User: Fold these one by one.
Assistant:
Number 1:
Amino acid sequence: MNDIAKALNLSASTVSKALSNSYEISEKTKKLVLEYAQANNYRPNLIAQSLKHGHSNSIGIVVANIDNHFFSQVINGIESIAYQEGYNVIFTQTHESYDLEVKNVTHLAHRSVDGLLISLSTETQNIEHLQKLQEQGLPIVFFDRVSDEMDTHKVIVDNFKGAYEATVHLIKSGYKNIAHITSTANTYVTRERLSGYTQALTDNGILINEQLIKYCELGGRDQNEIKGILNELLTNPVKPDAIFTAFDRITTVTLGLLHQLKIKIPQDIALLGFTNTVLADVLNPSLSTVYQPGFEMGQEATKMLISLIKTKQTVTDFETIVLPTQLFLRDSTGKK
């Protein structure tokens, strides 16, 4: 602005008001300033503007991986509301790393985002980095992977019911030795889906076999970890006749590894898992899945966050929205 002011022999204040279309500046001066700015490729400093006005009209997003089918659908839902409401979005990925999550959150805070939407990494147990920002006034909304240690709005799916219905389907289809491959044990989602699986077994008179429950400490991002788990299950004295997988990446990797091991699905082992892959119908065999409403989750979380950003009052009454899952039955869980 100082360069424009010097070139046009105007004050910096006049240039600033002209660029802001202020009523205090004549149309002739506005036209002069705007034409010069356009000719010289002037762009406003967004960071400076956010400091001046107290908002940046941007929202920070933290997810595990944007190439995950579920998270990509959540992101589409976030964008559909954010852009409609005049907000830009800044996406970051944790790759299931706690350290990277802390770095991303810190970076977004330094970018002066107006609010934060976050799905915790599988490594995250300490949320002090989020609690401090909330105490400083940054609106934060959790989705999918949430924490009970912080009071704020949250959007989740009915993880228990989704896992329960999936396991009951396998039992009703004739499978009795149902293995469960899930993520690291410390996450809310893992606990809820494990609880649904074990309750379904108990309600149908099947004893829980701890040797059939396997945890992926790396959250499914290491194929060799899942390969090792499958080898353990296949050499178990009680070999599974079905596998219920609890996360998107674990499900699709397990399907591929079973093919590599020449295991027929569902003749040798049935497979059913949480995944939002759009390829479920065309896989061989077509994959029975528990589907999460990712797009709707992104929309609801964004609406909640924008409501927090816009409110003039301190919010102490927070809501948790629980969205239903859908069970889609396909060839990978045919009758035993």
Number 2:
Amino acid sequence: MSKLNYKHLHYFWMVAKTGSISRASEQLHLTPQTISGQLSLFEEIQGEALFRKSGRNLELTEAGQLVLSYADDIFALGQELEEVLHHRPTARTVQLRVGVSDALPKTLAYRLLEPALKLEQTLRINCREGKLEVLLADLATHKLDVVMSDSPMPASANVRGYSHQLGECGISFFATGTLLQQYPQAFPANLDSAPFLLPGEDAALRARLLQWFDQQGLHPRIAGEFDDSALMSAFGQAGAGIFAAPTVVADMIMRQYDLQLLGQTDEIREQFYAISVQRKLTHPAVLAISRAARIDLFAMGEE
């Protein structure tokens, strides 16, 4: 098996970052013919096509995306080594690439990730938000270390991964003081006919809320549906309707958005997960997140 040629890898990395051989050649001060020839040799040695034509530019194949994810880490580590040798930072930087499902409340996302920021090692966090299926695809190609979600990995997902439950809690309902005065009945009757902001179809909470409304004989008026929890909270802050969020962040939501607690229930439970490609978590930042969630945030205790 041939050894990896890091010069070829660097040429590949520059082409991937710039999107074309001509732009990469300008930055590397080499001719396009040199870059093209070395890139073809690299692909031949690896036995995989790493790029495909897309108009005047090049786009990565699936194999190319995988190689790029490793190249990013390799050259970031090289830059870190260079800084250490020049007596800049002396502490080793831990990189955490985390995907956050857009259905996960942003206040809870911060609470979950906060313990990683308290590690003794210097941490550089790269946080991406998006649809769960998109984040799982990036997890599979090693662009992410972990994905935080309000649901486990779907059985239909064409990704090999493992769902690690972080904890669960009940649900609280929030409204502005003005809106609260308009519905003075006892909870949960005060939800009946009230304007309600519903999570989008990707949120696991949506189906549980609708089922609970039906069981309680409640018919809130759906005033809006939101894929993004932060946007839903902003509408709630503006008085557009009542919305629900995990009870563990109730105090934080009331402070941040100047809202009041309408009521809460444990009959609706939300679960939260860290999804990784590893059966056992090993990344120090992810371990800190998991441990703090189980012991402190959700008080599940140690395994």
Number 3:
Amino acid sequence: MSQIAVPCMLIRGGTSKGAYFLAEDLPVGTGARDAFLLAVMGSPDKRQVDGLGGAHPLTSKVAIVSRSSEPGCDVDFLFAQVGIETASVDTTPNCGNILAGIGPFALARGLVRAEGASTTVRVRTLNTGTIADLAMRTDAGQAGVEGDARIDGVPGTSAPIDISFLGTEGSVCGALLPTGNPVDIIDGVECTLIDNGMPVIVLRAVDVGRTGHETREALQEDTELKQRIERIRLAAGPLMNLGDVARMVVPKIALVARPVAGSIATRSFIPHECHASIGVFAAVTVATAAALPGSPAASVAAMPTGRERAISVEHPTGEFTVKLTVGGTPERPVIERAGLLRTARILMDGQAYVPPHALARSGDEARRAPE
């Protein structure tokens, strides 16, 4: 039998890279879909040599996109984190980096039309219900590429994509602070269990015997630290309304420390590898934690004041600026809006192939896509 072929784009979104598909092109049924995605990415295999994955969590990601059924939204987006050495497809979390590529993909696939020199696409993330506006330059009906926007973790410059998030608070855990506390003690460590678009456990690096300024490589090899924070993560899962998180990619872990030049220094684990930078929603969530009086993040942050705050979140390869609109009172702040800058670029447009036997194991009906 010939291989199953499905139209696919590879897109760099922010500091990640993923395979983007139209929902209508994928096999029917969750089991068949997930079996297809595992085969496409080449999982489980630590090299992903027989697929499109890049053998790293930041490059083993998938976007599934369709016209939105939600009034006022343009497109729906389902994010999938595909396991590398495990046969897992996790659609629990958001991914703000892959989100950045949804606008260019939607234009290229004809899901939306350009509005002139600038186009805004409203995206609903099906994983959590989060709504985001993606404002981007458009040229000849497609997303612009050339520009002077620069984000740390990506070489060169590109056209900017301004992302504004609406209603991210508690998008996965059901509440900004699932326990109702800005501080919880887990394994003897003060933590903030928080979800402003991404479930994150925020703790001071010094409280686990680190500075928070180590290199990514040093932390990647730090087995003792990884074991300690994994114990914290497993204990935090039920407290964050996530249950047993042993096989889940959330919650993430963020070690925070006093900044060098920005607002707060971070070292992020996703959750078992140290991130070379920091994820979009993780940065938003850490910035939110830093705005909460009495939290571990607030104790080390150099926070700006006022209603509109630009918070520079430092990470191993640079910084990530999050723009927060803060209401409420100084004692009980309310994050009304989060915004940030990303870039994205279409790398390849073609067809992804998987052998038929990859779907035969799913137990669901598989549909052969047009070749």
Number 4:
Amino acid sequence: MPPRKIIIDTDPGQDDAVAILLALSSPDEIEVLGLTTVAGNVPLDLTTRNARIVCELAGRTDVAVYAGCDRPLGRDLVTAEHVHGKTGLDGPKLLEPTMEIAPEHAVEFIIETLREQPAGTVSLCPLGPLTNIATALQKAPDIAAKVQEIVLMGGAYFEVGNITPTAEFNIYVDPEAADVVFKSGIKITVMPLDVTHKALVTKERNDAFRALGTPVGVAVAEMTDFFERFDKEKYGSTGAPLHDPCVTAYLLKPELFSGRHINVEIETTSELTLGMTVADWWGVTERKPNATFIGDIDAEGFFALLTERLARL
């Protein structure tokens, strides 16, 4: 089969970086048509910088980076330097990027690509707030019928929230955008905290990255060395969850994951639960299922895949 065509929409972020590296290391299965950046973990200028750094680290300057929306649809931007550091990629010493930013706006690139490619052949892979995706759908409603699938990292149900008591960061930053996406009718697969919190970078797993001895392996190990301090202190876990690489791993080996096709609604008005992904896991409403909500992962298989692929770069 030909490689699966994807657009990665991202706000790097150390775990975004690992997700991108996993995709770029797998050209036989994944063709990355472009990286589109959005404000999220850090402001847009830094997420765009970081996406270019990751492409250069992987030796893939052929992959274009398009800068997108610098703020949510109707809210002030909330960022996460407290997790990812002031640059978003704190930890390793990384060179400033030299590759150019593509001149086209990310939203226009998404719209044009979906219109140009045969229907059902391009998947969207958002790793951050859904502002770019929602804006594209609002500007060009016809593209919804062209998308093969949206596989996103965001939301939570049993794991509740990581930025508020009930909301996961990506959805909380732009809940109105998430609402647009979940109501789009597009096939959606969700990697919530429920599954990503089972993909923990233990010392042994991080040592395996470092033992690759390559610039990529060492950089990934140093990235997780940095941001795991926050999660280990917050959750008392044995390591940091690698949220965003779950998206890429799902594209490569969906058999590593399991979940349910359920209804997911986004809370956009409540002061207490703004940004909550209200997941009808138990089927207690009559609302129509609109997303596959992943709940479990083969963590050993996931890290074996990740280590093997990073070794290729």
